[in-house]
Amino acid sequence: MTVMMRAARMHEVGRTMRLDQIARPVADTTDVVVEVKACGMVPNLGNVLANWPTWYPHMPLPSLPAIFGLDPAGVVCEVGKKVIGIEPGDRVYVSPVRSCGCCQSCLTGQRTQCRYMTFNGYFGFQKESQVLYDQYPQGGFCEFMSAPQYSIVKLPDNVSFREATRLGYWGTAYSALKKAGSLAGRSLLINGISGTLGLGATLIALGRGAARIYGTGRNMALLERVKALAPERIEIFSTESGSVADWVKSRTDGRGCDVMLDTLGAVASLEAFDDAMHGVRRGGTIINIGGTAGKLPIDLKWLMDEQMTLIGSVWFTTAEGCELAQMMASRIVDMSILEHEVYSLGDINAAISSVGTGNGGFSNYLVEP
Ligand SMILES: [Zn+2]
Fold this sequence. Notes:
By secondary structure, the chain is of the alpha/beta class. It folds into two domains: 4-166 and 338-368, Quinone Oxidoreductase, Chain A, domain 1; 172-312, NAD(P)-binding Rossmann-like Domain (Rossmann fold, 3-Layer(aba) Sandwich). It has helices at residues 45-55, 104-107, 129-135, 161-164, 167-179, 196-207, 220-227, 244-251, 270-277, 300-305, 318-329, 348-354; strands at 4-10, 17-23, 31-41, 71-79, 91-94, 97-98, 118-119, 144-148, 152-154, 187-191, 212-217, 234-238, 257-262, 280-288, 309-312, 339-344, 363-368. Helix 5 packs across helix 11. Zinc ion binds next to helix 2.
């Protein structure tokens, strides 16, 4: 007899989700089934659901009706015959990265570089993504989801399911900052410091020994809250009061900072990125994990003369997710600053329209089935 479950599904782009009864998944060979306890919602979710097919037609959504949900955490309830080391009862976060598993990128652990890379329950990066959506049809907005064993991050006992739903965006910030090398004693500009990505980057950079963090944003009250996390090490600046590059240089004797991380959202201006990256010193590193879209004219002579490094970074490896979970457990990354905004699965449409209305990165929107 088929066992059923509740799932919130989108039947038509731009329309509200419907709560459906569908078959509960079973665990295939190297897959596990997770009983979802919480699923996070990032500020970009509304864009993906309503605008992605228009904005980025080369990045397909799953065929409809579809179960979305990027950042699920829960308890393993069933494991496939060939799963080793993961057992029913394990508390886990499920990374949404799906990939082929057998190309050179996947075999070296760099699944986000696989040509088939797809965000389960979110969007894909190329037309072949539907193959992976078909293999893993459940995002986190349902009661049970199947997931490959390679996607599983085990949660330490003192990391709650609600906190774990932040592993996605904070893992993204963690992986990006690792690409900049050691931060110990160095300076970092975070463009958009009070948002979901920026706040995580701040805590991680503090934990990794950054001596100085320069943070920008528009909401002064939120900027002040970020500064209060480490007043001796964080300086803040409203983007409405002038050039970010000029400000950073004025704080560094004209030299500029060592590293810049851009976290601005999908509707940010190219000018904002261009301005901020010129606050980086000669030989410095510029990393983009934000949603700014479009072609930015870059002076190649400047890039060479100043020996600049420009990096794009997407998501993180499951191993990096495990590292961050341990940093959360030991409170190197302190999750207690989060204010959880919790919705039931039945209230998912209200949840989706609420995301982004709270206190920037401090507000953690999630659905609990
Ligand atoms: Zn691959």
